Amino acid sequence: MAIDLKERIKTLLSDKSGRIKALVALGIAGIILILISETGFAGKKQEQTAVTKSSSVDYSSYIEELSDSLSEVISSIDGVGKCKVMITLKNTTESVFAKNTQNSTADSSVSQNDEYVIYDGENGDSPLLLKEKFPEIEGVAVVCSGGDDIYVKEKVVKCVSALFGVSSNRISVTKISSDY
Question: How much is the pTM?
Answer without folding.
Answer: 0.53
